[in-house]
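Bug report (template v2)

What were you trying to do?
Predict the complex of my protein with fructose -6-phosphate.

What happened?
Run completed; filing so the output is reviewed.

Input:
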Amino acid sequence: MCGIVAVTGYKKALPLLLNGLGKLEYRGYDSAGIAIIHSETKNIVCNKTEGKLKNLINNLSEKNIPGTVGIGHTRWATHGKPEVKNAHPHIDSSGTVAVVQNGIIENFQDLKNKLQKEGIIFNSDTDTEVIPHLIQRELNTLSKLKLENNGSTLLVAVRNVISDLEGSYALAVLWSGAPSSLVVARRQAPLIIGLGEGEFICASDTPAIANFTNIILPLEDEEIALLTPLGIEIYDSNNERQYRNPVSLKVSEQVIDKMNFKHFMLKEIYDQPDTAKNWLENYLIKNSENGQYQIKYPFDTKFLESIARIEIIACGTSKHAAMVGSFLLEQFSGIPTNVYYASEFRYSPPPLLPNTLTIGVSQSGETADTIAAIDMEIKRRSIAGDEKFRPNLIAITNRSESSIGRQVSNIIDICAGIEVGVAATKTFFAQLLSFYGLAIHFAQIKGSQSPDEIKKLITELIKLPPLLEDLLEKHDQSSEKLAHDFFNIKDVIFLGRGINYPIALEGALKLKEISYIHAAGYPAGEMKHGPIALLDKKVPVISIASPGEVFDKVISNAQEAKARDSYLIGIAPECNGTEIFDYLMKIPSSNEWVSPLLNIVPLQLLSYHIAAHRGLDVDQPRNLAKSVTVE
Ligand code: F6R
């Protein structure tokens, strides 16, 4: 949440900052701003606007700000409304220190009270504004020690200030007293330094850097760095200088193109057949000796043999993928599995149980709740002391270089490529595939399924790419037509059972987050225990009915909705029983185990078309951000 870009070097800062911010706008788009050290006057020139980045770009179009050192920010509001006064950068009263920040300063009110008592006047409602004032106060103190005005002095001032901050932050600081220096620091929020040609560019995420360089230096938690055109100094929280080698960005990180699609979300829905192909290529290998398929992981899987139970921690869409995963791991692989909201797990963890595998699922790898929950689990298991309680961890993420990627050493990279649309689509699909891989792996090592059953599932997975292409072709237009009839509805109920119950939840989440239509997902059998009271002819019901264990039950539940005059949309193959639906979004017949991978596609398309038909900003829905880096 919130995107930071900061640059120092020999090139003009403004275009670098605006370009970088453009790539980070998915992190927040409530307001945007930049501050640059003017190359002649050495003063800080700041410009901020409310709303999307395009407002800032328009505002700056006639302005030429000469300067090669600057910071920029795109905001997702936490403290203070999305207004210009709350936009970053924030500047101290003397106008010499500018700060952009991502995260939340939890003790800001205490700090603000103290500063106000000292006579400091605040211009915003943000937590961030305390930082430039505190840095300026610290610089004043340091000046009494006759320290030179240079980057090292700024580094000391920032270090002293952050030691008083509680909460999480990634921040970048400019000071007109050291006009070619930049100080950046992070705690529980990401920050990456790109080593360009003639500039260092620091940002919250790699897309902002990828246009300039593919060599990066991720800053570790609690580190602080001084950047000047001549080099970088990194220090840890003990003030020890850190030396490490830069790493290369993956090529896939560098391509962010909407192609001919109207929105990134639609393109990303269409990417899914390739997502399936990539997964099959990356993770499924055929043993040339016995012809058997195996799941290939980039880590030693020996430790999985002693696992007796699994806990999965995730948020939002990732949690829905985890719920499908939990169904597979229990029902296919026979391992007791629980899924937890990361935000709940952290404060009410289950009792410690032995031989447990903890799986963290996060597309971005930066979700603060998930990071904190994994961290807490690692700590409490490490201090338990007993070998059987040791932390066994896997993370499933699309960003192996992210905070979670660095927190957990066994990474399943879902390899979906950058997802720009705020609503997760192809990454959900790729997370699902990762769970199929884990379920197959566990079924093989635990012997919970016969080799034939396992082979059947693998054969169905191999068939996915053409089936998905077919689904996209069939349903893009039909869901557009359906959207035409439904774009004005107020409430929608999604029903599913068994392995498709999480798909009902995900269908509802997709619809509400991009179309702002109220939608709720229920296990179909639960409807009669309350939600049925909502039904009438104004409330359509979308029912996922995949042939298998619970098909007849789902159809009966759909009948109950029809009897209350609801318009019924079925997500099902054409078969006996599905005549009941007023509209059938046909799904190819498949084994019930893989049905979620097919059922999700028309639901994504339907949500997309309803939101597009309503003329909404599909890729950047209101109030949301792609990485939720605050708790
Ligand atoms: C929904 C969506 C969010 C995220 C959630 C977790 O489309 O994108 O619900 O799934 O914020 O994000 P990650 O997976 O990055 O941890």
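What did the reviewer find?
The chain has a mean pLDDT of 93. The first strand starts at residue 3 and ends at 9.
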